[in-house]
Structures are given as structure tokens and as C-alpha cells.
Amino acid sequence: MATKSTKTKQEPKGPAPYRHQDLILVRTAHPTIIARTWTNNMEQWAKGVPLPQYHAREQHLASTAFSSNGRLVSWVLVPKPGADVTDEYKAWTASATTAAEGVRGAFDPQDGSEANQERIMSAVETYERPGMVAVTAAAAEADTDSRDVVKDVSTIAVASVYAPSKYRNHGYGKLMMKLLWDEIEKMDNIAFTFLYSDLGSQFYGNIGWTARTSTEIVIPVGMILPSISATSDSDDNHNTGSSNKRTTRAVASASADAIVLDAVTSHDTLQALLDRDTQLLREALKQRVLSQNQTGSTATTTFVAVTPEIHCFQWLQARAWYNATHIWKFDPAQIQEGLHYGVRRVTNSNTSDQFILWHHDFTDDQLYILRWRVDSTQSKAEADAISLVLIDAAQKEAKKWKLSKIVYWNPDPALAKLLSLEPKDRNHNSIPSLGLVNSLTETQNVEWIMNEKYSCNSSPVIGSLDIT
């Protein structure tokens, strides 16, 4: 649920309720307080979804493994003990008869009353996610904590930044994010933190999350692909038979053999695929470091990546399932049989080096490519043939679910060239922004590898309209 950013300074709706020095950022596990943060951000992100369904979806997602065991933390910016509103605000709301008309007093973390809920000036969520860091020899010398070529690390993904509209334009959003950065720096063994900004490239950069260059290609569902024939299926629904397989022939000089795709339907299949994907990512990071070291370069480059772990994909699948079932109300049989993670190529060796994983974004009418990999091919022509078959499968998937386009962030350059699509800069919304935690490395010496859609762990991109 993307939101619009604004660069125009808006006037506040009255005096600031609290001074900055009277506000603190606290974790909350109180179900009523958390539910209130959902109610607050509905004004921007619900897009017509009724409150009961909106809350039910958030509860459904909070129950997934991705959000469990302390990985998801809800934070609220609230008045500290003993604090009260400013005299200006108190005078401005002197005639208030309810907390909604005029908030008062300090926040009590154990109080679920309406008056206490009104004391939430803004809120944010964080997810702990696995990542990888690889440093060049020069960077390793500069950072005594860098010992191995590729290290498995913990990261913090930031999501759902939101301030109620009536509390905006008092600097509360910026204050909250500064306090959150301080909290992240206190956490154990967090290597980097990242988010996707809807507030331009500077807002979060001034705090610690530096914007990164990002591109995308958009593939219309009706786009005619180059050099690809009709599939062996007579209709647009693939992988609906008992075998969950389909055969496609691509007209490419290097590949006259049938390319067989298998739907990724089970957790076991997805896990095996992602295990292999992670292994290949680790090897790629190592190779980048070794190649730079062998040149004798003195550049202090740090390469980072978000590990493509199964819980993230399951979370996104749970979101798509809920939306398809309870909001868009697709046929239950179609959901049961056809809402898959993606497709992979089946070979004699049964490797998982060629696949596409996707997410059905029903709200914004698009099929996101979460992960794309076309490796271990004998030639460019073979890679092109496999790529066309995978995109053909994505087009049929989008058409089956009445989605108009396929969106691919930071696309494989070979695929973009094959499709004659020029990647466009994503500089208006969902801008990837990243910062190393407790590191002396300059931001320009950090490279974010494989920054595809799977790294953005929530469909509502973070940021609200002018939370400053």
C-alpha cells in the first residue's frame, strides 16, 4: 500500500501537544495499544478495507513465524512519566470534553484506555532479519570486528512508520526515528538496518539510513515476449493439474528442448530453493571481495545483503492469501489450488538455480517479482530462453489473478535488455535506505547486493504523509 510523499511544508493543526524533551520511544506488547496503531494508520493504508478486516489481517500476519519469537517489535512515541501537554495546547483545547478532542497527561504502558491510546504521537515497527556482510581486505583492517570474508549477521528492518494526521508537523516523526536509531545502536550484534522511504531521499538520510539507487521494470501482462511460442497448455492457467507442472518451448537457437517448470507450492520446496539461493549469494559476495582484493585495490568496500529466508516469503504469501480470501473474495478453490510462491525450472539434476518467486499485490494491481535467478546455463541463448519462459509464467499468473502488470525491482540487466525495457529510477516511493550500525565505514563505501522486493518485508511501504 504505497503512500504519497510531499515536499510541501504543511501547517500544524494547532499547537504541539508535547515538547520533544517530554517524549520517549518505548516498546509495546499491549494488544490494545498495538491495535490502536493499526487504527491510526488505517487513515492512510486501509484503502477502503473495513476496520474489522484490516485488524484481522494484521493479527493474521502477526501470528506468522516472520513476526514471532521477538522478531517483530512495535514502538510508540509517547509522553514520559510525569509529562503533560504544553500550556499552548492546553489553552487551545480548553473546551475539549474527550481525549480525542484534547489529549492530556503521561503514557501508561499497561493502560489500554481510550485516553491513554490518544497519547500515541507516532508509531513504528521493526523486524529482526538475517543478513550477510562481506568486507574487502582494506575494510577489514579498518573494522576490527570484520574477520571472515562473509559473515552471517542480524539486521533490523524498519516498517510502518506512521503519525496520526492531527499530530503531524511538530517534528515528532523525525524525533521518533532519531530515538529508534539510538535504540538500534544499543541492540546486540546488529550489523545494519534498512527501510524503504516514501518521504524522499533526505528525511531518513539525515538520521542514518542513506538512500540507495534503485530501479525497476514494469512488464504489462499483455506484452508480447520476443521469440517465444505458445505454451503446451491451451489455456492461461498453468500448474493447475495434479502434476503441478507445465512444459514450454522457447524459440531460441540454443534451446530446442522443452523447458519444464514446477510450481513452488510447498514449504519444503521453497526452503530447498532458498537454501540454494542463499548458498549462491554467499559465493557471490565472497567472489566480489576476493576479486577486489586481488586487484590490490585500497578501497574499503563493505558488501551487504538481506538473506532470502523462508519466513519473509511465507509472510508475504500469508498477506496475499488473506487479501484474496477475505477482501477480494476470489473463489476458494482457485486460492487453494493456484496461489503459489512462484515457479522453478525442473532439470535432470533437479537443481534450483533457475526460478522466479512472486507476490500477488491485489491492492495495487501488480505481481511483484520477489526473487529472480537464472544461473548455471550453458550459453546466453539458453539463459534467454529460460528467462522468457519464466516471464511467460509470470504473465499468465498475473492474468489468472486479474493483475495488470509485473514489477521487478533492480532487475537482472540481461532480462531488461532481452525485453527491451529500460529500467526506471525509483526515486519517489519505496526508496531503499540503509545504514551500518556502530560502524566507521563511510556510506559511499557500502554496496547493497541483491536488493530485490523480498527485502521489503511489508506491502505498505513505510512513511506517511509528512510525518515531520
Your description of this structure?
- The protein has 468 residues and is α+β, with helices and mostly antiparallel strands.
- The chain has a domain at 216-265 and 340-425.
- Helices cover 29% and strands 24% of the residues.
- It has eleven helices and 17 strands.
- The protein has helices at residues 31-45, 51-62, 87-92, 114-117, 137-142, 172-186, 267-294, 310-327, 332-338, 380-400, 413-418; strands at residues 23-28, 72-79, 122-135, 150-162, 190-197, 210-211, 215-220, 245-248, 259-264, 302-306, 342-346, 354-361, 366-374, 405-409, 424-425, 431-436, 446-448.
- The strands form two sheets. Strands 1, 2, 3, 4, 5, 6, 10, 16 and 17 form a nine-stranded mixed sheet that branches. An eight-stranded mixed sheet has the order 8-9-11-12-13-14-7-15, with helices on both faces.
- A hairpin with a 7-residue loop joins strand 11 and strand 12 (354-361).
- Helix 1 crosses helix 2.
- The radius of gyration is 24 Å and the shape is globular.
- The two termini are 20 Å apart.
- The model is unreliable at 1-7, 229-243 and 246-256 (pLDDT under 50).
- InterPro entries: Acyl_CoA_acyltransferase, GNAT_LYC1-like, LAT.
- It holds the Pfam family GNAT_LYC1-like.
- This is LYC1 C-terminal domain-containing protein.
- Residues 266-455 form the LYC1 C-terminal domain.
